[in-house]
User: Which sequence fits this backbone?
């Protein structure tokens, strides 16, 4: 016990790069086989074709705040948001490269917890972190993951495959992550009332099983994951497919915690909150996974919103944008 406490004390600078790499090697297990793993100039493995590749970075002050999220949840989320993109393509994650730029005054215990979080979620989804890079940072913590995956079926799920006449579906519920972030930032509504929303924000669960089921479904159209809010992401899907989506506000599945905020705020969180990491997809006939039908694909462009069966104009409010 004393040894463990001592070994987790101090800062990153006290322990140094060699100890950091040793901590990485110790934690990143290998669910997928490797010919050459961490320790050489590169990793070597055999990969079935075709390969789907994604990357997602998380920057302190932009994507997370160390005051609101424990290190292990930040590590888990880094993996989850990448794997969500793999799921949206109808893939299964296999290998990943992890890159971290870390200020030297970071507590060593924080660094170890971050690595534990990355390792835990990677292991949970059966993925091998086979390499990457670590550097110092003069400012914020910067994290990046690049993930490779194999496709479940011959064809990837794409944003451009929606066809007129199909229904539009979304998995899970919407707005929980935005509510969780709002609670962490403001303390309102009371944090103890919405633990699942805080969990949705800190540690989203990628929809791997649903993505795999959709990629085997004969009726599937287009698919994408929801990272920037339904309004913005649905517009992207519509544009990629050259169609219009008529979406019914009354049919959107709210996160249960949204009952604690005003209806307007709940709608705002569902449409623009972002970071839901649910799957938005279109298809013909009943889908092969639990999902809510929220509208139809029609001819035209853009998004139309319905309330009580009638078209409504929503004030323009874009989802998250970095620039
Ligand atoms: Mg995505």
Assistant:
């Amino acid at each position: 016990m004393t040894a463990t406490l001592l070994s987790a004390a101090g800062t990153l600078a006290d322990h140094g790069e060699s100890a950091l790499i040793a901590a990485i090697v110790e934690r990143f297990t290998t669910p997928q086989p490797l010919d050459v793993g961490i320790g050489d100039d590169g990793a070597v493995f055999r990969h079935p074709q075709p390969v789907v590749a994604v990357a997602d970075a998380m920057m302190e002050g932009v994507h997370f705040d160390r005051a609101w999220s424990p290190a292990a949840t930040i590590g888990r989320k880094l993996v989850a948001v990448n794997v969500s993109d793999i799921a949206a393509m109808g893939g299964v994650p296999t290998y990943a490269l992890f890159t971290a730029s870390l200020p030297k005054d970071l507590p060593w215990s924080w660094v170890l917890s971050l690595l534990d979080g990355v390792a835990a979620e990677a292991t949970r989804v059966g993925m091998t972190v086979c390499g990457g890079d670590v550097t110092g940072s003069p400012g914020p913590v910067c994290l990046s993951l690049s993930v490779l995956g194999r496709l479940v079926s011959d064809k990837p799920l794409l944003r451009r495959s929606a066809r007129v006449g199909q229904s539009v579906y979304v998995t899970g519920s919407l707005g929980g992550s935005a509510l969780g972030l709002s609670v962490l930032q403001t303390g309102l509504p009371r944090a103890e009332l919405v633990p699942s929303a805080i969990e949705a924000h800190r540690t989203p669960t990628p929809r791997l099983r649903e993505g795999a089921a959709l990629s085997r479904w004969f009726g599937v159209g287009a698919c994408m994951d929801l990272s920037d809010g339904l309004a913005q992401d649905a517009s992207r899907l519509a544009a990629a497919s050259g169609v219009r989506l008529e979406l019914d506000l009354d049919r959107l599945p709210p996160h249960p915690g949204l009952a604690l905020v005003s209806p307007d705020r709940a709608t705002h969180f569902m449409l623009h909150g972002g970071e839901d990491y649910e799957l938005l997809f279109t298809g013909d006939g009943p889908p092969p996974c639990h999902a809510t039908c929220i509208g139809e694909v029609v001819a035209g462009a853009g998004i139309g919103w319905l309330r009580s069966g009638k078209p409504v104009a929503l004030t323009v409010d874009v989802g998250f944008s970095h620039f």
Summary: The chain has two domains: 2-151, 159-312. The radius of gyration is 21 Å.
